[in-house]
Structure formats: C-alpha cells, structure tokens
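Milestone M4 deliverable, item 7.
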Amino acid sequence: MALVTSKRASSSSFTQFKNFDVFLSFRGEDTRLGFIGHLYNALRQRGINTFIDDNLKKGEEISIGLLKIIESSMISIIVFSENYASSTWCLDELAKIIECKKNDQLVRPVFYNVNPSEVRNQKGKFGEALTKHEEKLNDNKRVQTWRDSLYEAANISGWHYKHE
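Output delivered:
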C-alpha cells in the first residue's frame, strides 16, 4: 500500500487506488486560503500523508474514487465551518466518513468559528442549509442521513478554533 500526499487531485487521479493517513473534509470558501492550507502544511511537514482535494468543480456529484479515498484513509478530519452544511458535496463526504467511523476509522472534528451545538442541533446556518436542501432536493432520506451524520460528528471530541 503506497501512501501518497496529494495537494492537487484531478478526477483522473481518483482512478488509482491510494491510501492516505488523513482525509480532510472542509468547505473551501470558508477555510481554503487560511486554516486548511496551514493545517495541510503542518501535517505534511510531520510526514503525515494527507489528502486534500482543492480542485473540485462546483456542482459536481461526489465521485466513487473520492469515496474510496475516504474509505482507505486511516483518519478523517472534518472542519466544520459556517457554510459547511450548504455544500451537498461536504455533506456526502461527511455521511461517508461517519459510515467509515462505524468500521473503526478515527474521526476528529474541528469546529472552525462554529459552536458544536449549532452542528449537533442543526441551528443557525446549519439548520437553514438543511431546510434549503430539503426543499430543493425532495430527498428526505438523504437529508436525514446528513442530519444524523452532523449530530454524530458533533458529539465526537474535537478541537475548537475561534479566529478573532
């Protein structure tokens, strides 16, 4: 099993099976230019092979390859930020991560300028985003999976980051 660090991954790179130490799940518009870049570099500098996909096209469905990368990672770090739940892509990643947690994958949340209770109880922007998804998608089962995943992830001991 080769462990590879990927800074830029195109959909074609998903066709090769790769294992990573860490999978980062994040909402790019909230965290990409600061927090995620620093976290990725800190992990990489310590020799931790980390998957970061910063080349996603807006509106695309999550790929089978990306789901396999989540499955093959030893740890998933979920960076919950203000607009995380507005992305169906992030929520699909989260659902897969929680599924993998049930198979003993280590999962750690980071609450980036959000309170864990907002995530757990789907209040504020999290609640607004899920309500919009319910109205737009007309897929209550999928949205309920996201709600359950948010609740479960917010109950995992994690880190709080408050940018002042």
